[in-house]
């Protein structure tokens, strides 16, 4: 078994390499796509085999097998994270963002506040604002070069009274933190004290590197009152366009409320292809995932070493999990436009701009590492060439695209 990369041919229509997206976001249809949090690797063979089996049947009758899906998720979490989940506490939803949107609309009222920890996955802003709730920021702080939760500020925000919910991202996209047990314990204590419900987005929970351990908020939630978890196999197994999401809610009253809404809107019908693929992933995909994690970890090591030796002016926040890395370009002292031009047009890289994740982050960029190492290596070489041209006093904005400067 080995990780085979997919080809970004236009006919495939993958969002990541779609020329229209690349043009509208990066002004460069040729940019190497390292932005959207999606993998370039083929899924585990058992997933493809299972999908083939269902297609071969040629019959797509109604099938409601979510109980089997929940059992597979439960067993997986017990094995990978020593997490003892209750199959009765799961609810099926079409995707993670759908689940978060439902929770926001059900558990708060228009005008009430929802806390997010910036910089954070940009779609959280959209789901909060589209529900006419207020985004309340609890910015992460950098302590000794590591992103941490500012609990003092968080308590102030919870105390405001207008705050009903918080969306936690664990592991955190884009900074790559895997929150510790102590941090999660402190968070649940505050949530219980101020009656704030934590929506814990744990979609990245299986992309955890060897020096870290994933601590679901469920493992420290003793009151079973103020926590709703949302997860999905999408990130773990590269199933973005074919998987469902799930809610895990221990609080029976909250679960009954959500179940009523989800059932009433028939959002729990699922899709047999998705359900069988999910079961195959969680029951037969572990070897593939272990190989992926080893590969990503080696890629991270290569990037860390390259940056420290060749590009020390670009700072990496070493990820504990996720296949995103958060890069700080402030050392280059460029304007926002000049940095974007340097990365998108001179280095030909489609990286996610930092200001998507919150204000004041325009000197950062997020890079997706789930690509072949050779692609990542070429990308960093391109970055080095573009930066060196710039440092040597050549105006990156003045140069036509692809015209190499003298260095
Ligand atoms: C933290 C986080 N939540 C949710 C999603 C999207 O999940 P879905 O496509 O199931 O709505 C992503 C995708 O990048 C993500 O990073």
UniProtKB/TrEMBL annotation:
Signal peptide: none annotated. Its EC number is 4.4.1.13. SUPFAM superfamilies: PLP-dependent transferases. The keyword Lyase applies. CDD domains: AAT_like. One of its GO terms (molecular function) is cysteine-S-conjugate beta-lyase activity. Residues 64-380 form the Aminotransferase class I/classII large domain. It holds the Pfam family Aminotran_1_2. Its cofactor is pyridoxal 5'-phosphate. InterPro entries: Aminotransferase_I/II_large (IPR004839), C-S_lyase_PatB-like (IPR027619), Class-II_PLP-Dep_Aminotrans (IPR051798), PyrdxlP-dep_Trfase (IPR015424), PyrdxlP-dep_Trfase_major (IPR015421), PyrdxlP-dep_Trfase_small (IPR015422). Keywords: Lyase, Pyridoxal phosphate. It comes from the Bacteria. Belongs to the class-II pyridoxal-phosphate-dependent aminotransferase family. MalY/PatB cystathionine beta-lyase subfamily. PANTHER family: PROTEIN MALY. This is cysteine-S-conjugate beta-lyase. It comes from Flammeovirga pectinis. The lineage of its organism: Bacteria, Pseudomonadati, Bacteroidota, Cytophagia, Cytophagales.
């Amino acid at each position: 078994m080995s990780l085979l990369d997919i080809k970004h041919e236009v006919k495939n229509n993958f969002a990541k390499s779609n020329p229209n997206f690349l043009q509208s976001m990066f002004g460069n249809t040729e940019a190497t796509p390292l932005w959207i949090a999606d993998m370039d690797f083929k899924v585990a063979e058992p997933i493809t085999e299972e999908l083939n089996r269902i297609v071969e049947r040629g019959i797509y009758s109604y099938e409601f097998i979510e109980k089997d899906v929940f059992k597979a998720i439960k067993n997986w979490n017990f094995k990978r994270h020593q997490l003892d989940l209750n199959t009765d506490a799961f609810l099926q939803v079409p995707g993670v963002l759908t689940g978060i949107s439902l929770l926001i609309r059900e558990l708060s009222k228009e005008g009430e506040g929802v806390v997010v920890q910036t910089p954070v996955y940009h779609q959280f802003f959209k789901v909060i604002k589209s529900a006419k709730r207020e985004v309340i920021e609890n910015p992460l702080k950098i302590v000794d070069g590591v992103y941490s939760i500012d609990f003092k500020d968080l308590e102030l925000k919870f105390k405001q009274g207008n705050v009903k919910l918080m969306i936690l991202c664990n592991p955190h996209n884009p900074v790559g933190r895997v929150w510790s047990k102590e941090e999660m314990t402190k968070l649940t204590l505050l949530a219980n004290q101020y009656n704030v419900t934590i929506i814990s987005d744990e979609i990245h929970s299986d992309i955890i590197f060897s020096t870290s351990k994933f601590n679901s908020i469920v493992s420290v939630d003793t009151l079973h009152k103020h926590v709703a978890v949302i997860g999905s196999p999408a990130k773990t197994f590269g199933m973005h366009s074919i998987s469902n999401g799930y809610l895990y809610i221990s609080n029976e009253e909250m679960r009954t409320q959500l179940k009523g809404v989800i059932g009433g809107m028939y959002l729990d019908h699922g899709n047999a292809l998705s359900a069988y693929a999910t079961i195959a992933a969680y029951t037969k995909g572990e070897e593939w995932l272990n190989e992926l994690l080893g590969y990503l970890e080696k890629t991270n090591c290569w990037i860390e070493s390259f940056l420290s030796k060749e590009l020390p002016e670009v700072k990496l926040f070493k990820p504990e999990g996720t296949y995103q890395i958060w890069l700080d370009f402030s050392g280059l002292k460029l304007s926002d436009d000049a940095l974007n031009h340097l990365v998108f047009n001179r280095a030909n890289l489609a990286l996610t701009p930092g200001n998507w994740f919150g204000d004041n982050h325009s000197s950062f960029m997020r890079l997706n590492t789930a690509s072949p190492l050779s692609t990542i290596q070429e990308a960093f070489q391109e970055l080095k060439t573009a930066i060196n041209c710039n440092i040597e006093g050549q105006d990156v904005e003045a140069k036509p695209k692809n015209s190499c400067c003298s260095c």
